[in-house]
Model the fold of this input.
Amino acid sequence: MALLASRILGMVISFVSIGFLARHLNAAHFGLWTLMATFVSFAGNFDLGLGQGLRNQLALLSSTSTDSAAEQRRLFSAVFTALLLFALSLSALVIALVPQVPWEHILGINAPELFMPARWAITMVIILMLLNLPLNLYSAGFMAYQEVWQKSLIDLLQVALLLLFAVTAYASLPIAPFIGSYYGVYNMAAILGLAAFLILRRWRLTLLPWAQIKAMVSSIAGSSVSFWVLGVSAILLFSTDPIIVSRVAGLEEGGRFSVYQRLFIMLITLHFTVLNPLWSAYTHALGAGDWPWIARAVRRSVLLTAALCVAGSTVMILFGDLLVQLWTGVQGTERLHLALLSLWISIYAWINCYSVVLNGLGYVRGQALITAAAAALHIALSVFLGHRMGVPGVLIGAIVSILPIALYATFKVNAVVRRHLNPLSPATADAPEAT
Done:
């Protein structure tokens, strides 16, 4: 409940920020600002899956061993050091290469005065998000130990600081420095979160010998690579629609579409807030062999998902235009767009419901492969249909691309649970995927 309450309050604060900036930035600047969230999502998945691998391993160690605290601390330190070195190395490449990319063509920017600001804003955001990779390990740590309310407080602090910065700095900074500073504040909150996690665990980051770092990171690398492929593919699949819309219809339309999509993403945020703690709970139940509890938790999750999708989609289709106009002042969209977004978000929520189970139980490789294939299909199909049908084409391409994932995840979870609940099935009939 603490996580849900804080997430709702956090969403309210974030919505205030978006509404404020939508009314005070011009359409092109607001479009550029909203598209930066996509780059933030991309950068967050460049940790090679080590964050999720760390979370699973810490949860497993804490549930199966009572004397592994030192090992857990060393593992955390090893992953932190590896990600810090990785972020610093990659940042140097970003500084050299990213400003040279013609982002104005990729993003559909037509105003020449925004060409260079867009390049530098993207460069700054990518660097800041790379540096966020080691800092954000506090989130994996809190979730591994199911210390939900602590993470909730850090999340609230982060969105509150971002709102304060947006209100006080929007008028005094050009758009590129504003965007860069905005995500600098984002990293400040992550630093505070990391410090809080270490203090509460009574841990100190330890500089380990490189051979030990390599060995400990390698011990979770198999599942981590699968998590990384899954994470990057999911971002390409679920977070690139505003970029595609911007590419086929212009930056202003991309920003407008992003506002509507964010309204629907609110449902996913609430949904995943409830599901996310179950990830580590499924891992703990796996360690204890408690498959009846897993089966009950899956059934409850499915019912919750169905209820949320039906109620949320109905509200969005009927009142989405009014909500967006009251929120940001952005003019309405076609009812067809709202219906397609409702279908997209419902399938998205269904996938999340089953993906959390598979992640917690260690069945990652299959998800990674099918999601990677779906991401490639999504980009090609949505761009193709977008050029011919506009925004509806982008959404139809997105919906068609994710349907196979929903079918796979549903079948896989039901098959795994039934197999382990059936005493006549051999124990090794469906062991978790190792890497």
In short: Residues 419 and 425 are 6 Å apart (CA to CA). The chain is about 85% helix and 0% strand. Residues 2-421 form one domain. The longest helix spans residues 251-288.
